[in-house]
Structure formats: structure tokens, C-alpha cells
Amino acid sequence: MSEIAICSNPWCKAQFRYEGEKPKVCKKCQSFDTELSGGVTWTDKKYEGPRFDGKPHLTSLNIKRY
Fold first, then answer.
1. What is the DSSP letter of 6?
2. How does strand 15-18 pair with strand 3-6?
């Protein structure tokens, strides 16, 4: 019997059906990660000190493929 889960990718969140052991991401995200993009990783920003202190903070984007 199949069950319903929600994809854990923050940019997807699609509902999908699965049988057996519960996967973390949907089939679209699995194929995107390994076949289409060459690998996608999601990391959360770790802040040092107060985040909302009224001062500008530097940001950086690391784009390898576009």
C-alpha cells in the first residue's frame, strides 16, 4: 500500500507517493540532484552575533553552473 509524503527540499515541498522505506525527497528532486544539475546542496546560513542589529551584513553567492 502506498503512502503520501512531502518532499524535504525547501524549494520543492511537493507531495508524492511511495512504497516501502520513506524517501526524503521526491523522484523529481532525486533526478535533478544527480542527473540534471551535477549536484545541489542546501545549507542554512549560520549567523555569528545578532542577526537583526540594524547594520548591513555582507552576503556572498557561490554560483558554479548557470
1. E
2. antiparallel
Specify the DSSP class assigned to residue 44: P
- The one-character DSSP state at 14 is -
3-state class (DSSP) for residue 62:
coil
Angstrom distance (rounded) from CA 60 to CA 32: 24
Instruction: Please write the tens of the pLDDT for every residue from 11-62.
Output: 788 899 999 898 888 888 877 765 655 555 667 777 677 777 888 877 777 7
Residue tagged 549560520 (cell numbers): 46
CB-CB contact of 65 with 37 (8 Å): yes
